[in-house]
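From the methods appendix. Each design record in this collection lists the tokenized structure first, followed by the designed amino acid sequence. Records were kept in a plain field format so they could be parsed without special tools. The example shown here is representative of the layout used throughout.

RECORD:
FOLD TOKENS (161 positions):
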């Protein structure tokens, strides 16, 4: 006897747009964002919440989308890297990442940018120590973290790093 999984309809608000999506209750938010909504900027690394590559903002707070079921996100505001990227060019934070060589392969970058974006929204004058603490759950295997921290310092309101 085949195990047929029922799907359910969820209404997700992603990057300010409403999406009605049929999902299996066990599907992660990361998988729905990538494979049902085509938002491939949400990367999936470890699938255990340890690497931070799948970070998105849920009601303005960074969360690991690989650890959340898509059905749990209904009624919340979800922001992906696509949602913080202007139609033309880059956001000031993304430009700072570019200018400070804070990326190499780019796999961790969306999660880093969204984590830093949430921090700076809460605390525009975050200290280097606070930036390091906020980013501590996002792993990068290519760069040293100093360039990433420098980029966030430069993007701070009034920053001069």
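DESIGN:
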């Amino acid at each position: 006897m085949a195990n047929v999984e029922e799907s359910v309809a969820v209404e997700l608000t992603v990057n300010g747009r409403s999406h009605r999506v049929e999902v299996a209750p066990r599907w992660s938010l990361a998988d729905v964002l990538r494979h049902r909504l085509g938002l491939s900027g949400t990367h999936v690394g470890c699938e255990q919440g340890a690497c931070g590559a799948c970070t998105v903002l849920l009601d303005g707070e960074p969360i690991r989308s690989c650890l959340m079921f898509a059905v749990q996100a209904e009624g919340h505001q979800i922001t992906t890297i696509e949602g913080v990227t202007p139609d033309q060019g880059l956001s000031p934070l993304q430009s700072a990442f570019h200018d400070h060589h804070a990326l190499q392969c780019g796999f961790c970058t969306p999660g880093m940018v969204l984590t830093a974006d949430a921090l700076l929204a809460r605390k525009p004058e975050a200290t280097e120590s606070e930036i390091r603490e906020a980013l501590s759950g996002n792993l990068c295997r290519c760069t040293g973290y100093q360039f990433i921290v420098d980029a966030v310092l430069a993007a701070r309101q009034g920053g001069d790093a």
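APPENDIX NOTE: The mean pLDDT is 93.
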